[in-house]
Every structure is written in structure tokens, then in C-alpha cells.
Amino acid sequence: MSTTASLTYNTFQQHENATYALAILGRNQQELIQEIQRAFKGVASAFDTGSDWQTPRGSYFTPNPQARKGTVAFVYPAAYNSYIGIARNLFRLFPKIYDDPVIASVYNRVANVEKSIYPRSLSKLSKKQLEALEQRLIDDPIAMLESEMGVAGLLSAIMKNYFHIEPQCAFGYSLGETSMILAQGVWTYFHEGSEGLNSSTLFKTQLSGPKNAVRKYWGLPLQESYEGEDFWSTYILLCPVSRVREVLKQENRVYLILINTPEEVAIAGDPEACQRVIQTLNCDAFRAPFNHVIHCEAIRSEYDELVKLNTLPVQNIPNITFYSAAEYQPITINSYSIANNIAKALCQHIDFPRLISRVWQDSARIFVEVGAGSHCSRWISKILKQKEHLAVSLNHRGTDEYTSIIKALAKLVSHRIKMDLSSLYFQVPENSKPNHTVIKTITLDSSEYDSTFLNQQDKKNSNFHLQTLYLKVLKNNS
Prior knowledge:
By secondary structure, this protein is an alpha/beta fold. It is 43% helix and 14% strand. The chain folds into 4 domains: 2-68, no CATH class; 71-225 and 298-415, Malonyl-Coenzyme A Acyl Carrier Protein, domain 2 (3-Layer(aba) Sandwich); 233-290, Malonyl-CoA ACP transacylase, ACP-binding (Alpha-Beta Plaits, 2-Layer Sandwich), CATH 3.30.70.250; 438-477, no CATH class. A 6-stranded mixed sheet has the order 11-10-5-4-13-14, sandwiched between helices.
């Protein structure tokens, strides 16, 4: 199997400029044969309909490669998608990332929260115990932020160091802007910023816990710690944005904080007022897993602190355009601009469709979600459903990291993204052929080995030879 895959890759390398490419994925011979058989009909159908062909196992073909029509954008998701066990195998699968300078700069900081992500136990944790640990992680905004930034850095390093995929632009969703700046190596000394984040009261009492920023804005008594029933709730609504805006005019303590798609938004504020909005809209709604205050005017008092925490030494990264939701346009790379853009974006609602539309207008066609989860990819596909594009994610909860990455690479290959896949294959001698079989005659009392390539007649008897050899070994060892 491995030899066949490597020989196929050698052939692929000889046709790197081919217009079309088909990726076949499978875990064993039977699956590969099934995928190949399906591909005969699937590829033909793709040309007839103009639609991409893909299977649940990840095989993929597109008759409309986007790499020749636009550029690659890296998308950095929000900071509240991390989960227990995330990225557990990445260092084992891709050990080169140990040497990446970005990873080196964040490794010690992420190590501070790794016990929250990878809890220890002498016995198997029950489902209830895991749920409690997961909620504890979600309730710790700093741990969520730093773990998500770490995952974004790891996946960015893998794309760069192993597969040589370089984006032409990058942008983030919400706190994903900080992940973007870190993962792309713009910040040169993240340790200082992490120390400031951990020592600041911003995510301890102002935006989380007692949420004193909101208490101050609403004229409520301040608290030193969280006490009693929470006075703030966050909900995801499946409803047109225009309808939500209209109903919110009747409420002064509910805010439109996120527009994910034209049909999906998030609101936050007083729990009773949020419920009134939901009832008036009569739409599907569910409570968000996180409940920190963000993306509304109620936290404008924290603008200066946000600027302070994100003012760090920077270096220019050539050939990449960075976008911010502060003004929905490219940003200038300097400490002042980056810090103020992050602060402004966090103090106002996020209009993700507007950001995606701007980046698409600037020629981005391939969107690679580099971080935890696949929410951004899903939203991008809905926002650009009538426009040419490709949106893939590198992490899916419930799917191992290697499978997620390989499935994403299959799509990128078919869309003709320039990359280096050699790390997935071992080198095969040029004169190797997949149908060569080797039989070794072993003399048990000697260290000498005779190797013989079988001819066609020998191949018919190969089972007999191998079976005989196996029985001889058993007999002499009995």
C-alpha cells in the first residue's frame, strides 16, 4: 500500500502543472478500490454538472480549480472553540514544528494551560466528569484564548513547514485576529503579552466573572467576584439580520454582537430582555456555550486596556495582506495600528459577511480555517454560496487531526494549490514496481539470506512457497 501510494505520488510530481487533479483517500486496499470505482462515475458527473465530487472518506475532485482564479486566505477562528484533547497528536505527527520560531515563542505560555486541555486521571474519566472539566475550560477565558492561539500557531506551522502552503492574505473572526497576528509571526515577543494578559483584570472581573464593565455601563453596583445569578446571557439566533435589528430597537440592554451569516446572528445582554427578543422573533435559538462580554458598546470602558495588552513589538511579514474587522480593510503592520484595530473590533459587533465579501473582492478564493473547529468554513460557504470559492478547515471535533488535515489537503490538491506533499510518502527507488514480489529463503542456523524476484510462474506458486517457509519456522522452533 505504502509503495503504491509513493509510486503514484512520483507520477503525480511529473504532472504538477496539470489542469485537473483527483485525490483518492482510503485506509486500506478495499476502501481504495471502492473509491476508485466511484471516481469513474463521480469525475464524469462533475464535468457534466460543474459540481465538485467528494465522498465521506475524503476523496475529492473539482472541475473548477480555484487556484488559477484567486489567492489563498488563512482564516483564524474565535477563541472559544477549544476543547479537551484538542491537538493531542500534532507534535507526534509533525515533530518539525518543535523548531518553528513562532511555536517556540508560545510553547511555555501554552504549557501553563495544558493541564486544562489534557486532564490527568489514574482512572478513566466518566462522561459527567469530562463534561465538568470541559465547562471549567470554557469558563476560563484566558485558558481558552491561549489554547486556541496555540492551536492556530501549530496548524499554521504545519501548513508552512511541512506542506509549504503560504497564504496571500489572512484575517480573523473576533479574537481570531490575535491568533492571526501571533501565528503569522507578526508579534516577535508574545511572552510579554501573555504575562500582561494573565495579570490583567480584563478577563477576570471586567469581561468575565462579575462583568464589571457592564455593571459600570448599566449603573449597577460593582463586585469583586461573581455572586448569585448571572445578569448576562448570550444566544445564537437563526433569523435574518434585518428582523433582529428591528426588534432590538425596542430593547436597550440587548446587543447584536455577531453576524455570522445573513441568517445566523448572536445577541447578548439582560437574560429576560434576550428572551423577549427571541419570543418576538419566534425563531430557533439556543444559548451559547460561552458567556463573556464582547463585541458591544458596554465594554468601551476597556478600550485602553485592550490596546495596552495588544501593543507588542512587531516585524513585517512580506507577501501577506492582513485584514481587520475594525474597518473591514487591510491593516498597516505596526504596534499602534494592530493594537487599536484589535481593541476597536472587540468593542463593536462583528459583521462576518462584510469581512468575507471584502476579502473575496480582493481576489481571495481559497479559505483555509487554521484553528479549532470548522464554524468559519461553514459560514463562509453560506456567505459565498453563489460565488466561486473553496472553504476548508483543518480541525473537526470528533475527527483525529491527521484525518482532518489529509481531507483538507485532498481538496487543496484538486484545486491546484501549490504545495509539497513529500512528507506524506517515503522515497521509492526509481526502478521499483508495485507488482514486484520478494521471497526470502531463510537458513535458521546461518545469517545468510537469498533474495529472489519472482517471475510470473513463480507468482502462481508464491502462496505455497510462503506457506512452506512459515511451517518450517514453526517446526524448527517447536
